[in-house]
Amino acid sequence: MCAQDRFRDALKRAYDFGPDFPRRGLMADISAALRTRSREETQPRWFVGALAVALGVATIVALIAIPRIGHVSPPRPAAPVPATSEAGVAVILANNHVAYIPPGATKPTWDTTVAPPANLIASQSHAGLGHRIAVSPDRSLIYAIAARDFVGGDRLADCFGTDHPGRLTAESGRQWPVRGPDDRALGRRLGGWGDWEAHRGRPLESRDRRDQQLDRARHEPLGRARSRLR
Amino acid sequence: MAGQHEPELIRRAKAGDTLAYEDLRRPALAPAARLAAVLIGGNTAEAEDAVQEAPVRAWRRIGNLREDALFEPWFLGIVVRQVRTLQAERWWGVVRLPEIIGGRSHPGDQWLEGEDLRRAVARLPRGEREAIVMHFYLDLRLRDVGHALGLSVPAVKSRINRGLKRLRADVSAFEVLACARKTGSVML
Predict the structure, then answer these.
(1) Is B59 in Cβ contact with A8 (below 8 Å)?
(2) HEC string of A17-34?
(3) Distances in Å between the alpha carbon of B56 and those of B16, B21, B66, B159?
(4) Do B110 and A11 touch (CB under 8 A)?
(5) Would you state the torsion angle of the CA atoms of residues B59, B61, B63, B65, taken in this order, to the nearest 10 degrees?
């Protein structure tokens, strides 16, 4: 008998638990435990599965519904319908017709036709000043129109229909006078927004003609100019 | 024993046949109880608790068992893990000495006997103890031990050899004491 066989025998002798181990009822206990566990585990697994499905559905519904709920505004009390406009509005209508409706009014306080040339093409808001600027199609005439709330600058409503010129302030801080359409001229653009030249009471056509003469005089030869002056 | 019909029993058990599963586990119950009792340190009551819980675990995992595999090594592996769990839960417990009928060691033997051998086995590292008990006590083949413990055959051999070396060291120390008892002299 080799050493390992002797060790095997010694081990079996050392751990000889006798014929009553394991006890005979152990097999029956195991079978009962298996039956009990099977019943216990079947129902919880079904229940847990159903619960997991329900939770999954609830999560999906929540993910879909929560963003929509966030956009739903709370109910507000019904506000009275305003009978009048809340703020004044200056608008450029067709055929160079300009009208202004002050706050709280339903009819325009003034309604006038701006000077030719006809067909204004733009009504530009001059940010920071509260003015509205209308530009003629050839961009040679700029009309200062009163801001609808008359804030942020000089009061320009007087430009229209009166002899008192208003004062338009550009973003650069420069100011220039403007007049109503009765004077047929408000300003002429020379460069950027800060370079405006006022032409009070003088038609633009004459101004343009004089400028053309001056330009021609600058560029023509000196002899021809002298002869013409003579 | 399931014998020649074991693959068929495994197939039926995996399909949910509880009778087939009972036929499989019945012959494995006694080896499983003895294995648990040795690994626990001779406490037969705790061993039966472990063995009573193991078939439930095995039934839950029967789907993992290959049809061409043997049921008993696979089941014993579950018993080993169940014992580990019990020992981990009762780490604070006092290891009681087994109430086993056994004799003292004989001075002329190469191996320890009885309580001395049980003490030496209990001192082994867990992996070495499991491999030695399954191979020498339950007479499982090395391949089946590896299957039960999730190890390769060389790994099982390595663990068994290391364990036997430790036991031989204990034998040498004990032989000194035994010789001293026999001669009435202290040779420390």
Answers:
(1) no
(2) CCCCCCCCCHHHHHHHHH
(3) 13, 11, 18, 29
(4) no
(5) -100
pTM of the model: 0.48
- From the candidates A15, A16, A20, A37, which should be mutated to test the interface with B, based on the most B CB atoms within 10 A? A15
Give the ipTM of the model, two decimals please.
Answer: 0.74
Q: Are A30 and B36 in contact (CB under 8 A)?
A: no
State which amino acid sits at residue B141.
R
A34 to chain B: closest CA residue: B56
Residues 6+ apart with CB under 8 A from A106: A83, A84, A85
- Which residue's entry shows tokens 């200062």? A144
The torsion angles phi and psi of A148, rounded to 5 degrees, stand at -70, -20
Q: With residue A175 as reference, give the H or E element that holds it.
A: strand A175-178
Q: For residues B141 and A10, what is the distance between their CA atoms, to the nearest angstrom?
A: 19
DSSP code at position B137: I
Task: Select from A3, A16, A27 the Cβ nearest to the Cβ of B100.
Answer: A16
Count of A-B CB contacts under 8 Å: 95
Task: Tell me whether strands A131-135 and A196-197 are parallel, antiparallel or unpaired.
Answer: unpaired
For residue A74, whether the previous peptide bond is cis, meaning omega lies within 30 degrees of 0, is no
> Mind listing the pLDDT tens digit of every residue in chain B (188 residues)?
455 588 888 989 888 888 888 889 889 999 999 999 999 888 888 888 888 888 988 998 888 888 788 999 999 999 999 998 888 776 554 444 444 444 444 444 456 677 888 888 888 999 999 999 999 999 999 999 999 999 999 999 999 999 988 887 665 555 544 544 554 333 32
How far apart are the CA of B127 and the nearest CA of chain A, in angstroms? 17
Q: Which residues of A91-130 are buried (b: 16+ CB within 10 A; e: fewer)?
A: ebeeebebbbbbeeeeebebebebbeeeebeeeeebeebb
Are the CB atoms for B128 and B163 separated by under 8 Å? Answer: yes
Give Cα B185 to chain centroid, integer Å: 37
Find which of B100, B135, B141, B168 to mutate to test the A interface (most A CBs within 10 Å of its CB): B100
